[in-house]
Amino acid sequence: MAIQSMTGFARHEGEAPGCRYVWELRSVNGKGLDLRLRLPPGFEALEQPVRKAAAAELSRGNVQITLSVSGTAPAMEAVVNETALEAVIELVNRLGERIDARKPALDGLLNIRGVLEFRDPELSDADRTTRDEAVLAGFVAALGELKAMRLSEGAALNRVLRDQIDRIEAFTLAVEADPSRSPEAIRARLADQVSALMDTGAGLDRDRLHMEAALIATKADLREEIDRLKAHVEAARTLIEGEGGAGRRLDFLAQEFNRETNTICSKSNAASVTAIGLDLKVLIDQFREQIQNLE
């Protein structure tokens, strides 16, 4: 699976027995996978299957999942309260033995409070199961659309990140090739520093100065930092072109890029190398900002 962004949106509509439904999925950056569900009353049984399906396809991101439902059958159904009706009829019959009165008509009986009730139609267990399966299938379709969008965003990020890694490599090679790093330039710079100290007439020991100069030259060498930057560049390329979520590992590599660049800047004794190091730090910050969007 190619790299994917954590940003995406999907909307899927459909019909199920007794209702129309709409799934809306919104995904943004997150350290882990955080699923937030909003389900209407009567659809609580879908929560666990929805979480399981989402966790199987997504590994990171804050995902808002909303289900909206509207009825396709009549919103209400009329139901006679048989107990209340029997009680009214019994009362009418009992009073009819004592009072000469016309028997009440049907519409009169139904108008008595509590005899006729209106309520939402109830689904049978079989119909409810069929409905839930259809709505869940709609969620799986919406999840597929969300993943497709995240993959599309990931492909765009892939191109940006590859370009940034190429530029990081170019800056690294520029540091490596800088004239200030040639052995001749280093010897000449140290010789000038030693000569300046000797000219002060402070009675400094020349052999000791040369030893200290050699130690300083060793500490100032950027070979290890350059080699590590090159290795990190290759590792980043492998992750970007590899399978599965690479966001966390690329974030770690961005920290390593930054660490090596900071060391180069601190060890640099040439303005040209320092300038390249500063440009490299800006580029690494941009790289790290982009990978915050990766799963």
What would your notes on this structure say?
This protein has helices spanning 47-57, 82-96, 106-110, 125-177, 183-198, 206-220, 223-241, 247-267, 271-291; strands at residues 8-16, 19-28, 33-38, 61-71, 77-80, 116-119. The chain has 295 residues and is an alpha+beta fold. The chain folds into three domains: 8-74 and 123-151, Ribosomal Protein S5, domain 2 (2-Layer Sandwich), CATH 3.30.230.10; 77-119, no CATH class; 154-291, Butyryl-CoA Dehydrogenase, subunit A, domain 3, CATH 1.20.140. Strands 1-2-4-3 form a four-stranded mixed beta sheet, with helices on one face. A two-stranded antiparallel sheet has the order 5-6. Strand 1 and strand 2 (19-28) form a beta hairpin. Helix 4 runs antiparallel to helix 7 and helix 5 (183-198) runs antiparallel to helix 6 (206-220). The protein is rod-shaped, with a radius of gyration of 38 Å. It starts with 7 loop residues before the first strand and ends with a helix.
In short:
The protein has 9 helices and 6 strands.
Strand order, biggest sheet? 1-2-4-3
CATH topology of the largest domain: Butyryl-CoA Dehydrogenase, subunit A, domain 3
Gyration radius from CA atoms, angstroms: 38 Å
CATH class of the largest domain: Mainly Alpha
Count of beta strands: 6
Helix amount, in percent? Answer: 55-70%
Task: Give the biggest beta sheet.
Answer: 4 strands, mixed
Parts with pLDDT < 50 across at least 5 consecutive residues: none
Per the principal axes of the C-alpha atoms, what is the gross shape?
Answer: rod-shaped
What structural class do helix, strand and pairing data support?
alpha+beta
Q: How many helices in DSSP terms?
A: 9
